[in-house]
Amino acid sequence: MSPRRVDAHAALWPVVGLTIEDGDRTPLDLDELFGRTNPKVLEIGFGMGDALAAMAAADPDRDYLGIEVHTPGIGSLLAHLQDQNLSHVRVALGDAMQLIHRLGLGRLDAIHVFFPDPWPKSRHHKRRLIQPANVVLLRDRLRPGGILHCATDWPHYAEGMAEVLAADPELELVDHDRGARPETKYERRGTRAGRPITDLRFRRRTS
After folding, report:
1. pLDDT computed for residue 2 by the predictor
2. What HAMAP family does the entry give (predicted)?
3. 39-68: string of b/e by CB count within 10 Å (b at 16+)?
4. Which of 13, 40, 67, 174 is disulfide-compatible with 92, CB 3.0–4.6 A?
């Protein structure tokens, strides 16, 4: 990590950081984690943290929890938090589905899955995050009316995502709008490479 990110990590990780251990099923109280009862947003795989920091800065009435396995990305997000004085963001290191298992049902206002690893080879598709068993777990952590927002620049994965999400009986398609999602460096690289960007926003049904 750059010196700026190392400094941010040293200063903020003890305050806002959370390590997700494999096999730990201890329930995680999000209100206790943030120190308030505001609606909660989870971003899975936030990359370098640009989008998460921008969305949190524009949305101070909701709390943001981001999880990532890439240490330089965590350092980058912590530097953003330090620069922008964002106190309503928490940062987790570890496996996202391990974290999901620790969250209470219906506790999240939204889940963001922006540009996850597409695992383009057929034999690796089982490693994709958006698959039926995972979607059930993600959906159950949303409140009724909560939003699951996915984005990808891989057309084949976009088709697979749309099929899996539409097949869940408790989810309904809202639109293909990017909403408040800002453009990321990764997204710009995909656009320059000629790959179309697909956004899928699904809502957990209220009945």
Report:
1. 84
2. tRNA_methyltr_TrmB
3. ebbbbbbbbbbbbbbbbbbeeeeebbbbbb
4. 67
Cα→Cα distances 96→46, 85, 146, 192, 199, Å: 11, 25, 18, 29, 20
117 is a catalytic site residue: yes
For the stretch 29-81, pLDDT in tens is: 999 999 999 999 999 999 999 999 999 999 999 999 999 999 999 999 999 99
Print the domain residue range for 151: 3-204
Task: Name the active-site residue from 117, 175, 177, 199.
Answer: 117
Residues that constitute the known binding site = 43, 68, 95, 117, 121, 153, 184-187
- pLDDT tens-place string over residues 138-178: 999 999 999 999 999 999 999 999 999 999 999 999 999 99
Antiparallel, parallel or unpaired: β 108-114 and 63-68: unpaired
CATH of the domain at 186: 3.40.50.150
Number of domains in the chain: 1
The length of the chain is: 207
